[in-house]
């Protein structure tokens, strides 16, 4: 069976499963769409080599979903593809997106009910350093939760090792953050003379700091310090904790516009 036949067979199956929800664009070739939920529409573009070679191209029209949820969806789609290279992935991908969006809707409803009447807090925390009289704009990323553990990244512009110490000190003035199990940090600074300063601290989360540093190096982010807070939920996550730490850092860097 050639690749076009495999693709055609999958499209027939999707039409059978989803009926009128599955739509083929009349103008753009190989473009399909399906309504995932209210205000969430998934667009799928298939190239001629799919599924034997190359993943589908996804576009998600979902103005009310947070960056964190969209990032989770992207990671889920990548995971499905790499677990099924050469095979059909559209049904699994659609159902996984539905699960994530449905879960987010339930969580949002609970949060709205819980926070009804409460003032929404800003995601940016501006603190004046006591020693240097420099204002540090510490930007907080959205949280990632897994088996009762919670991860959150924080990022701030720094130009010296003293700045790094001040930012961490100021961040730990937040009682909730200071009481967390770990606050892993990494920074990279380029001095005016071209000298590169970089260091990291695992704060008891063995090997996590080195992986965080590798992320900053890979992204080529300079003159920032990233701190990832982990509130331990009592259940060991194994190597998943490293993935969540780096993803939390990435979310903070994205929120701050550094990547």
Automatic annotation (TrEMBL):
Ranges for domain RWD: 9-104
Signal peptide: none
Taxonomic superkingdom: Eukaryota
Major location category of this protein: cytoplasm
Record keywords, A-Z: Cytoplasm, Repressor, Stress response, Translation regulation
Protein location: Cytoplasm
SUPFAM superfamilies the record matches: Ribosomal protein S5 domain 2-like (SSF54211), UBC-like (SSF54495)
Annotated region (Disordered), positions in chain: 105-125
A Pfam family matched in the record: Impact_N
Annotated InterPro entries: Impact, Impact_N, Impact_N_sf, Ribosomal_Su5_D2-typ_SF, RWD_dom, UBQ-conjugating_enzyme/RWD
UniProt keyword Aminoacyl-tRNA synthetase present: no
tRNA-binding among keywords: no
Family designation: Belongs to the IMPACT family.
Protein name, entry field: Protein IMPACT-like
The organism of origin for this protein: Nicrophorus vespilloides (Boreal carrion beetle)
